[in-house]
Amino acid sequence: MSLITVTQAVYQEDYKIFLQFNNGLSGVVDLEKYLDGEVFQPLKHKEFF
Length: 49
Prior knowledge:
The protein has no helices and three strands. By secondary structure, it is mainly β.
């Protein structure tokens, strides 16, 4: 079994990132709901994200 890695990551809009993996799978992930907690506060500012 091979390790699956990200081969491409492209910012789309807001908190969405297009990800492509070395196994051929790809898609857009919306990370907004995962930005919870003090450590992620700076990323809630779209200019910084």
